[in-house]
Design a protein that fits this description.
Largest sheet: 8 strands, antiparallel
Pfam family, one: SWIM
GO molecular function: zinc ion binding
Strand order of the largest sheet: 9-5-6-7-20-19-18-14
Organism: Virgisporangium aliadipatigenens
Protein name: SWIM-type domain-containing protein
Strand content: 25-35%
CATH topology of the largest domain: DNA Polymerase III, Chain A, domain 2
CATH class of the largest domain: Alpha Beta
Keywords: Metal-binding, Zinc, Zinc-finger
Shape: globular
């Protein structure tokens, strides 16, 4: 698996000494500590941190040894967010410590990688009751510089899949709506009757009064639950939660599997798990960002990036007004920034949020295989405008027909035949978009460049 080696440094191991929890992190040097203070609900907070760390070290599909990847923590004006992906990249976990959960000083915004090692894991497991728990997020890095260059105390390998996952999830989740809310008694009953272990089945949860019932077929209003065993990380926090909320996109009869988010709320904390459409599918390969990568302007992304101000949530309409560009261009720019890890999406507040990961902002666009292949086709002159809404793309000895129907593209290639747009556009459709081929059927300014089909291939 390709990896990007990012250099991080820790002055010491993370530790819990008495009542003082110290998470050793790395940063960009601007904020030695961006939060120091107490967590108002120590035991639930400890369980939430353990859940995010557990997801980071778990491979739900084809399990192997623990992945051992470090969660990401972001501090903004009034909250902390801890994020991770599973080793297979099919589960995205986030713990939001809300203003009610913090009693301390937010010294400055920032994003770092947190070292949740085995000693800290054991210490967090021992946190019980109302014993005060102090959290210090920092310090800076520890770098030794010589005439030969800089030497970093520790290096953390992060798979390229994490970068692509951080880009894909906000795009996918931004299409979610609240689908159900269960009180804690119903939530406990529902989660405990789910299939356990490495379940790979795709089920659908249908709201039924105050509860959810499971079915094997999608119906309007249902929420996809693929690999129900992947929700196990929520269970330890159940006894502290007041509600379970479920989010997903609109679905209908015959719908292909889709992603979904399952969120426990304690009042001071929110722990959410976003599941990929199938256990075998990682978010890194979903292709939801490809239309925006193909269409977004670098100038828009640079402008919007300069206006992000570490607010806990980003109001797209306000941001568009400040930038003096249309809302849809603003959304495309946010997606572009998401490919550099600068933007996440909070389904609970239906809003983007700002973070900064140590990635090259152009990497996702430069390294995505389908986008790279599409650019190569354009450079080779393989795109030919046809009659009406049809273009021809020649690849090797074959010619593929790409048709635009309103906001959607279809193609005669095997990729589109297999996924019907459910995993983003194929390279031929991307090439047509990049080439700006003269197709009939003008798309409205506020419509997306590609619309994934809901129906699975027949």
């Amino acid at each position: 698996m390709p990896v990007t080696i990012q250099a991080y440094a820790y002055l010491a191991e993370s530790s819990l000494a008495g009542r003082d929890l110290r998470l050793q992190t790395s940063s960009d040097g601007r904020f030695p500590r961006f939060f120091t203070g107490f967590l108002t609900t120590p035991e639930p907070a400890a369980l939430g941190l353990l859940a995010v760390a557990e997801v980071a070290r778990t491979r739900y599909y084809r399990p192997r040894d623990p992945a051992g990847l470090d969660p990401v923590v972001t501090g903004s004006a009034d909250r902390l967010r801890f994020e991770s992906f599973s080793g297979c990249c099919g589960v995205y976990a986030r713990l939001d410590v809300l203003p009610a959960g913090l009693d301390g000083d937010v010294l400055g915004p920032g994003t770092t990688n947190v070292d949740v090692n085995d000693p800290l894991r054991r210490a967090l497991t021992d946190v019980t009751g109302l014993e005060p728990l102090h959290l210090s997020v920092g310090p800076d890095d520890l770098t030794v510089s010589t005439m030969d260059g800089a030497v970093v105390e520790r290096k953390v390998p992060l798979p390229d899949r994490w970068l692509r996952g951080f880009a894909e999830v906000p795009v996918i989740a931004s299409a979610f709506d609240p689908r159900a809310e269960l009180d804690i008694a119903e939530a406990r009953a529902f989660l405990h009757r789910l299939p356990a272990g490495r379940d790979t089945s795709v089920l659908w949860a249908v709201p039924a009064g105050r509860a959810l019932r499971l079915t094997s077929r999608p119906v309007p209003g249902a929420v996809c639950l693929a690999g129900a065993g992947r929700l196990a990380a929520l269970r330890p926090l159940l006894r502290f939660a007041s509600a379970l909320r479920v989010y997903g996109p609109p679905v209908g009869a015959g719908n292909a599997p889709v992603a979904s988010t399952w969120e426990l709320d304690t009042g001071a904390l929110r722990l959410s798990l976003t599941l990929s459409p199938e256990p075998r599918r990682g978010f890194s390969g979903e292709g939801a960002v490809l239309p925006s990568l193909a269409d977004a302007e670098d100038e828009d992304a640079e402008l919007i990036g300069s206006l992000l101000a570490w607010d806990p949530t980003v109001d797209v309409a306000v941001l568009a007004a400040r930038a003096d560009i249309p809302v849809e261009r603003t959304r495309a720019a946010l997606i572009r920034l998401g490919t550099a890890g600068q933007v996440g999406y909070d389904v609970s507040e239906a809003a983007y949020f700002h973070r900064v990961l140590p990635y090259d902002a152009t990497r996702a666009a430069r390294d995505n295989p389908r986008l790279v292949a599409a650019r190569a086709l354009v450079e080779a002159g393989a795109v030919e405008a046809g009659d009406g809404a049809v273009a021809t793309v020649r690849s090797g000895e074959r010619a593929y027909r790409v048709r635009r129907d309103g906001a959607a593209f279809t193609c005669t290639c095997e990729w589109w035949g297999r996924y019907r747009g459910g995993r983003g556009p194929c390279k031929h459709a991307l090439a047509v978009s990049l080439a700006g081929a003269a197709l009939a059927g003008t798309v409205a300014e506020d419509a997306p460049a590609f619309a994934p089909a809901d129906q699975p291939p027949s």
